[in-house]
Amino acid sequence: MIGLTIGILFLTLFLKKKTSETGTSFCYFPNCRVLKELRSKPFEYSDTISQLVSNKQLDSTEIALFFREGDVNFKESDTKATPCTSYLIEYEVKGKEASLQVYNCEAIVRIEQIHIK
Question: Which among 68, 69, 51, 27 has a CA at the least distance from the CA of 114?
């Protein structure tokens, strides 16, 4: 039991140091893995999202927060679609609940629409 405790403490300190130095993170949960994959690809806005950003009704940093801290609604997502899977990401924007519809294609992530309640 003592050896197990020492081993866990060692791994915790070692992995914490490694992630802080290299900036890597370990994503084991489905939500984290999907958001990490989406962040790794370039974004493309639909026309409606482009208009909201250009009119300053929506900030691109707010959209980036969906991919950092959002929650993927897997019930409303189509993870088996081809050629692009579809995800609904929920997050709070300006104090209101919002959802972002994105399509994850092989080389690009297309941000299709946003619904703010």
Answer: 51
pLDDT score at 20: 45
- pLDDT tens string 11-70: 777 766 554 444 556 677 888 889 988 988 998 888 887 777 777 777 778 888 888 889
Which residue's entry shows tokens 């081809």? 82
On the CB side of 6, CA atoms within 13 Å amount to 3
Domains observed in the chain? 28-116 (3.30.2310)
Which residues, 6 or more positions from 91, have their beta carbon under 8 angstroms from its beta carbon?
A: 65, 66, 69, 70, 71, 98, 99, 100
